[in-house]
Automatic annotation (TrEMBL):
Residues 496-572 form the Signal transduction histidine kinase internal region domain. Keywords: Membrane, Transmembrane, Transmembrane helix. The keyword Membrane applies. This is Signal transduction histidine kinase internal region domain-containing protein. It holds the Pfam family Y_Y_Y. It comes from Emticicia agri. PANTHER family: SENSOR HISTIDINE KINASE YPDA (PTHR34220). One of its GO terms (molecular function) is phosphorelay sensor kinase activity. Residues 385-433 form the Two component regulator three Y domain. One of its GO terms (cellular component) is membrane. Coiled coil: none annotated.
Length: 675
């Protein structure tokens, strides 16, 4: 035992009761390969280790004496992912997996050779993503919906399909095989849960598991505990437990005490604890107590350049891999009750040129007027280095607790003179440790600065007010000009449309008078009725020319007189049908809209008994539709192409729905929005 003193008292260290043992690749092998990342591991029956690196190097290492031997796989230029990602060890042979092939190392001859795999594995864009040794069978998984089984004694292959599996991008989706405590092979089926292999039925069977869970895409290799439950580390979703008997899942996150939501390795120990690795941070989880102990190791701090791996050793220890560092954890040296001894201490108060150590004799501290910038150091004294989340508050200055995360220092600057009380608490999981209150007095300056702050605030408020007033004035002016422009545009459109109404097509009037003259000579009674309808037309125009809109019913009654006059002129050459449901008769429409559209159709198309002009009026999608077939005249004498445009502009000011003109080779359609 080693004893050492601190400002808070006497502390001790037991070297024989260490939590872990470090194997640094720099110390194991020569410097040329010391910085290579280790990505794969297997332990032989003689307790020697096989390590696979990023550069396709295989290292055989004996931890008992430090002896090692290296083997180099042939280069692979077909993919960027060329490293060794899995190793399986048998009595005579070591199987080494890369994404594009499997190599064999003969232990007796130390010769490397490549395993002949089925053509379906050699197929372009098919990669080996996982291998697993089950007695005399080597299971091989690819990134497509296929798993292969290689029977080592017979050297024969079998292939099996994964049910409900959607082939995924192996760069972004985790795919793996796993072995439970009963010797059954399992495979994940993202996003369809899990499947296990039935030895009796010779196929993979999808299991009752929650599917389409977001964390499925980010799960790493599972480990089975003594109850045959699976423990999955996930990238961003914490620790997942899958109960193989009930088919249910549980999830633990940082908020539950887990060291970090981005965890990449999990491994049960012989005591029932689950060890979880996240870069250089680790959690030891006791499922029976639902309790986490967290700690860090001072090697390879958090970096995306590597990921964690964990493997159970034959001595019932756990081996964790961090890039080029091997950590052998010793579970029997951890006590689940050690956390009860943890104490939260305030260690020191630091000023620019002075440090005050906080001891049991120092009950409070008085700082001068220049001591209003200071830092307070605190920490939990923990045998397991659990990763606590700290909250602190300087009562009298802080309105609420400050979340410091894992930081163990509180920085304060420009603290006004007065009396304050500092307190801090540490939380991990559902456990909270609170320090004792520590009073702090800061002397007050002889001058006050509130007046300066008041002047600054007044100047800022004045500037903001003046800018606001200027912007409001400018905005009002812009709105005024826009409104004036809009009003002028509307007045112009109304004048144009009124002009169109007031000067109802002279050809119509001329043709009507010509027809009337003929009827007077031949059919006086018909001429009288003709004259009545003509007078009704002009009376309607005079009565409604000042109105913005009339009901559709009034407009249709008016246009019926117009239709009668035109049909007396064109007879069988003109066919007009109106089919308007009764519920639309109260809808609004601009006066003389239908007459203008009929007149436009008659003006621009030929009308013959053999080829009549057919005009249809109906409702479609809350629009009034006026549609006619196209029999275009070669030349239209009185067309100035302004009638429809004026009508369109007027509707623009009356409704937000568009006035639409649609023309095809066979039809001319106008969609009039109802008001």
């Amino acid at each position: 035992m080693m004893l050492f003193g601190t400002s808070q008292g006497l502390c001790y260290l037991e070297p024989d009761n260490l939590l872990y043992k470090i194997y640094n690749l720099t110390d194991i092998v020569n410097a040329k390969i010391a910085n290579e990342s280790i990505n794969a591991f297997a332990e032989s029956t003689d307790k020697t280790w096989w390590l696979g690196t990023w550069t396709r190097r295989l290292i055989h290492y004996d931890p008992s004496n430090g002896a090692y031997q290296t083997f180099q796989l042939p280069p692979d230029y077909s993919t960027n992912h060329k490293y060794i990602h899995a190793i399986c060890d048998t009595k005579k042979t070591v199987y080494i997996a890369t994404y594009t092939g499997i190599f064999l190392l003969n232990k007796q001859t130390s010769r490397l050779s490549e395993l002949v795999v089925p053509d379906k594995i050699n197929f372009d864009s098919v990669y080996i993503v996982s291998i697993l040794l089950d007695n005399n069978t080597l299971w091989v998984r690819t990134n497509v919906a296929m798993v292969f089984a290689y029977h080592i004694p017979s050297r024969k292959w079998e292939e099996f399909f994964l049910p409900s599996y959607l082939p995924s991008n192996f760069y972004t989706t985790r795919m793996f095989l796993g072995l439970d405590n009963h010797g059954i092979v399992w495979a994940n089926l993202y996003p369809k849960g899990l499947a296990k292999f039935s030895k009796r039925e010779k196929r993979f069977i999808q299991q009752k598991t929650p599917v389409n869970e977001e964390f499925e895409k980010w799960m790493f290799q599972f480990s089975a505990d003594s109850t045959n439950s699976f423990w999955y580390p996930t990238m961003g979703y914490g620790l997942i437990k899958y109960d193989t008997e009930k088919g249910t899942i549980q999830n633990w996150r940082e908020s539950d005490g887990l060291v970090f939501d981005h965890c990449m390795a999990a491994c049960p120990d012989k005591f029932g604890n689950i060890w979880v690795g996240s870069y250089h941070k680790f959690s030891i989880f006791n499922p029976s107590k639902n309790y986490f102990q967290n700690f860090r190791v001072p090697y390879n701090e958090e970096s995306t350049s590597y990921r964690n791996y964990m493997f159970p050793l034959r001595n019932q220890h756990i081996l964790a891999i961090q890039k080029n560092i091997l950590i052998e954890f010793i579970p029997e040296n951890i006590s689940n009750n050690a956390s009860n001894k943890n104490t939260l201490l305030i260690g020191s108060i630091q000023l620019a040129d002075t440090t005050f150590l906080v001891s049991s004799q120092l009950k409070n501290i008085h700082l001068g007027v220049d001591g209003n910038n200071f830092s307070i150091n605190y920490a939990v004294f923990s045998p397991t280095q659990e990763q606590y989340r700290y909250y602190y508050q300087l009562e009298g200055f802080d309105d609420k607790w400050i979340d410091a995360g894992s930081k163990t220092v509180a920085n304060y600057t420009k603290i006004p003179g007065g009396n304050y009380t500092f307190r801090v608490k540490a939380i991990v999981g559902n456990k909270e440790i609170v320090s004792h209150d520590f009073p702090i007095h800061v002397a007050t300056h002889f001058y006050k600065t509130l007046w300066f702050l008041g002047i600054i605030l007044l100047i800022i408020a004045t500037i903001v007010y003046l800018v606001y007033r200027y912007r409001v004035k400018q905005s009002n002016e812009v709105h005024r000009l826009q409104a004036q422009t809009s009003r002028l545009e509307k007045d112009k459109t109304e004048i144009q449309y009124q002009n169109l109404i007031n000067h109802l097509n002279p050809h119509f009037l001329f043709n009507s008078l010509t027809s009337l003259n003929s009827l007077i000579l031949t059919e006086p009674k018909q001429a009288s009725r003709f004259l009545q309808k003509l007078s009704l037309i002009y009376r309607y125009i005079l009565q409604n020319k000042e109105k913005e809109s009339v009901t559709l019913e009034h407009e249709i009654n008016f246009v019926k007189n117009y239709i009668a006059l035109q049909q007396s002129r064109f007879e069988e050459g003109l066919s007009i049908s109106i089919d308007i449901p009764k519920e639309y008769m109260s809808s609004g429409i601009v006066p003389v809209t239908l007459q203008n559209l009929f007149e436009n159709a008659i003006k621009h198309n030929t009308i013959e008994d053999e080829k009549p002009l057919v005009i249809s009026v109906y409702i479609e999608d809350e629009y009034l539709i006026v549609e006619n077939n196209i029999q275009r005249k070669a030349y239209v004498e009185t067309s100035n192409k302004q009638g429809l445009e004026s009508l369109k502009k007027l509707y623009y000011y009356l409704t937000s729905e568009p006035f639409q003109i649609i023309e095809t080779h066979q039809l001319f359609k106008v969609k009039v929005p109802l008001l």
